[in-house]
Amino acid sequence: MEVVQNIFVFLFLTNLRFVFNLNNNLARTPPMGWLSWERFECNTDCMNDPDNCIGERLVKTIADAMVEKGFRDAGYTYVTLDDCWPARERDKQGRLQPDPLRFPNGIKYLADYLHSKGLKLGLYEDIGTHTCAGFPGTQGHWKLDAQTYADWGVDMIKFDGCNSDVQHYDMGFPLMAKYLNQTGRQILYSCEWPLYERAHGVKPNYTAVAEACNTFRVYGDIYDARQSIMSVVNWYGENPGGFLNVSGPGHWSDGDMITLGNYGLSHSEERTQIGMWAIFASPLLMSVDIRTINDKSRRLLQHRGVLSISQDSLGIPGRRILNMENGAIQVWVRPLAPRGTFAIATIYTNTFGYPIKVSTKLSDLGLKNPNGYNVTEVFDGIHRGEFRSNHNYTRMVKPTDIDLVLAKVL
Ligand SMILES: *[C@@H]1O[C@H](CO)[C@@H](O)[C@H](O)[C@H]1NC(C)=O
Ligand SMILES: *[C@@H]1O[C@H](CO)[C@@H](O)[C@H](O)[C@H]1NC(C)=O
Ligand SMILES: *[C@@H]1O[C@H](CO)[C@@H](O)[C@H](O)[C@H]1NC(C)=O
Ligand SMILES: *[C@@H]1O[C@H](CO)[C@@H](O)[C@H](O)[C@H]1NC(C)=O
Ligand SMILES: *[C@@H]1O[C@H](CO)[C@@H](O)[C@H](O)[C@H]1NC(C)=O
């Protein structure tokens, strides 16, 4: 522990960056699973709310529901606890420990339970002295904590950036990657590094971020409302600092959780979120009560066509190609395998009025094959027709909705 602290102080004093290439062969496609935060936050009141507090019962019942309702088989395998799982103090050996009342059988037991169901366990920690909610942070305990996760059988770590100095990020996040690697266990590493740098006015070096992290958050915490979804969409459209340029297999930019099935989004808005996160090649981490989720949202989350865009093997994120009417109409294109196939998303962000007609030449979107394209809508599977690349491709888009199509070269 002391040695780790000294490395840290050394790097800090000499103002060096620490570079580590996390070569763990994980996240070849964007990770899929469940993450507690947006829906369950820091509910630790197991006395009055035993079904919904951050604890063993929540994890097990969510995991059971993920299996029963087809989420696991659709590819959602990570079940991840966000903040508020630890006890307020480390144990006598300095190790992290879960809250003993909320996790009576410990974390290893939970990991074993999930593994027996074909699922994976994710946990949350923080680079600083404390987590955002005030639980023990990792600062000064890097190596020990990495080993603790490995001993427990943890499969993913979401690493936050509260309660730390901004100078620590360029060293601390890669250092944690190194210690995770040294455990010998493959642990997916999800970083909030660039997000916190930006919050401190520092321009992230996305190349370094992508080297050290399997996924990296690029924008603020999502919440269950249209304006939150749209602010992420617009950030991806602007792509400041070029985070999409380094996003690909093994290291994906992360637009934060999927909020489908909660309280704040209409059906059109839910289609827009899942469709756009598939276009972004962002992780799909649902934050919803899987035990009671409605069927309409469940079907969207498990839609094969959307998920096959998300999980496409080329691993090239989509880009905003056209931004019209002050952002009210946006056209996004993601290249897919086999080469020559594209997903095209057209979103119409107005919140009043009637469906709008959007006409674009496929060639203006970069689809230039002289044979033309066969275009099929993704959500309902309706065949839209065959289009030459220099002819207009026309679709109607409803306010707040998305038009998502696959274009295959003829
Ligand atoms: C640790 O890094 C080395 C070198 O990149 C790599 O070969 C090895 O597979 C990594 N181990 C794990 C567990 O990720
Ligand atoms: C960004 O990080 C990469 C990879 O570590 C490094 O090669 C590059 O020099 C860094 N760029 C800047 C401006 O520091
Ligand atoms: C990212 O890629 C875009 C499009 O290829 C390019 O215009 C931009 O300069 C790149 N940004 C960085 C930081 O490399
Ligand atoms: C094609 O679309 C453009 C842009 O909406 C429009 O100005 C043009 O009239 C259309 N051409 C045809 C042949 O429909
Ligand atoms: C175009 O796609 C539809 C499915 O939407 C398919 O039935 C049809 O055979 C395809 N046409 C060609 C020429 O590939």
Tell me about this structure.
The protein has two domains: 2-310, Alpha-Beta Barrel (TIM Barrel), CATH 3.20.20; 319-409, Golgi alpha-mannosidase II (Immunoglobulin-like, Sandwich), CATH 2.60.40.1180. It has helices spanning 2-14, 37-40, 56-68, 71-74, 106-116, 142-152, 169-183, 193-199, 206-212, 226-238, 267-280, 295-301, 304-310; strands spanning 32-35, 78-80, 120-126, 156-160, 188-191, 215-217, 252-254, 284-286, 319-324, 329-336, 341-348, 356-361, 373-377, 383-387, 392-397, 402-409. With 410 residues, the protein is of the alpha/beta class. The chain is globular. An eight-stranded parallel sheet has the order 7-6-5-4-3-2-1-8. The chain is built from 13 helices and 16 strands. InterPro entries: Aldolase_TIM (IPR013785), GH (IPR017853), Glyco_hydro_27 (IPR002241), Glyco_hydro_27/36_CS (IPR000111), Glyco_hydro_b (IPR013780).
